[in-house]
Amino acid sequence: MTSVQRVSFRVLQMNLNHCWTAQQLLQQTMAERSVDLAIISDYHRAASDVQHWVSSTDGKCAVLLNRSSNAAISATGCGFGFAWVRIGAVALYSCYCTPNCSNDEFDTFLCGLEASIRNAQAASADIVVAGDFNSHSAEWGSASEDLRGALLSNFAAALDLLVCNEGTTPTYHRVNASSVIDVTFARTSRREQPLVTDWTVLSEINSASDHDYIEFMVNDSRGSHHNPFRRPETASGWAVKKLSTEKLSEYWNECGQPSILDNANADDHAAQLQKFLFDACEAAMPCRTVFKGRRAMHWWSDAIAVLRAETIAARRQYQRAGRRANQDGRTAAFEVYNQKRKDLRTAIRWA
Fold first, then answer.
1. Which end of the chain has less Cβ packing within 10 Å, N or C?
2. Where in the chain does DSSP place strands (E)?
3. DSSP characters for 98-145?
4. How far apart are CA 281 and CA 287, in angstroms?
5. Tens digit of pLDDT per residue, the chain (351 long)?
6. How far is it, in rounded angstroms, from Cα 310 to Cα 234?
7. What is the rounded CA–CA span in Å between residue 315 and residue 47?
8. Whole-number Å distance between alpha carbons of 247 and 141
9. Which of 154, 208, 156, 211 is nearest to 181 (CA)?
10. What is the CB neighbour count within 10 angstroms for residue 51?
11. Sheet harboring 82-87: ordered strands across?
């Protein structure tokens, strides 16, 4: 019998509000939190790395795979308002629908998305559907409900998709108001474990957008013979850039040239030479290390980290001023917050 193991990978869901700074910070946040995959709405610009980026046909949403992740994409697809990738037995959808479209246009978008998902179901894939639908319903924590929310709820019910949102923490903030419009759905044929766990709104991390990061784990079960997420414990080969000619010379002087074997065939001589070269490499170079996936972006620095923290503090002050309904205080707090955002954006551009 094939053993079954549980394999998890980390996903970050985010609406970038078409902001360049937010897209830069997204990549840094993925590195800091060892995120494997990002589900993105309203991005600023498509990534040039097409092997790790899949976008919708209208250019409004995308899926981004972290380069340092060992997750393997086996299939991709896209349509109007959605893009998807398949990793192992899971198909992950990134979705976005603008608040400016009509209810009929929203229904048409859902019909196209449903057709794509049913095709993925035929391929025996579990489903994660996430994004900014600009729809309101109490099912995912909204304080109000609208027709789009009802349409989205019916869409999810028809596909046996369950809401993964937990609590009523807002995912979107604007002046003196907030709401829950970023939603995560999941469907799995395995009843012994949930497909999505640890769903959290990361409201304490500055995203440079009017939306907060959403983080969750996707749990994929499969036979142990098929695990595209397994990270190697050791790396083969040596770090050639760290070659020490002094140590190589010491090894050569100590061991000398390999002796010629008597009555040996070509395979024996080749094996002896291979061992000699292997020992020389061991003596002169360290082994390569396995990258753990927490490398910062090239522009990241302690100074930018301080600016990001100051921006978070300024945003909290601005939100508190809004709740107190003090117009003068709110205006002053907004000016400070806006300046901190500009300082952060400028620092990243010039880094």
1. N
2. 4-15, 37-41, 53-55, 61-65, 73-79, 82-87, 90-96, 126-132, 162-163, 172-174, 177-179, 182-187, 196-202, 213-223
3. -TTS-HHHHHHHHHHHHHHHHHHHHTT-EEEEEEE-----GGGT-SS-
4. 9
5. 344 445 789 999 999 999 998 998 998 899 889 999 999 999 999 887 767 899 999 999 999 999 888 888 989 999 999 999 999 889 999 999 999 999 999 999 999 999 999 886 646 679 999 999 999 999 998 888 999 999 999 999 999 999 999 988 999 987 677 889 999 999 987 766 789 999 999 988 888 888 999 999 999 865 333 444 444 444 457 777 788 888 888 888 888 777 777 777 877 777 778 888 888 888 888 876 544 445 566 667 777 777 777 777 777 777 666 655 566 666 787 777 777 777 777 777 776
6. 40
7. 29
8. 64
9. 211
10. 9
11. 73-79, 82-87, 90-96, 126-132, 182-187, 162-163
Per the document, the length of the chain is 351
**179 φ/ψ angles, rounded to the nearest 5 degrees:** -160, 175
Report pTM. Answer: 0.71
Amino acid at 274: Q
Q: Are strands 73-79 and 61-65 parallel, antiparallel or unpaired?
A: unpaired
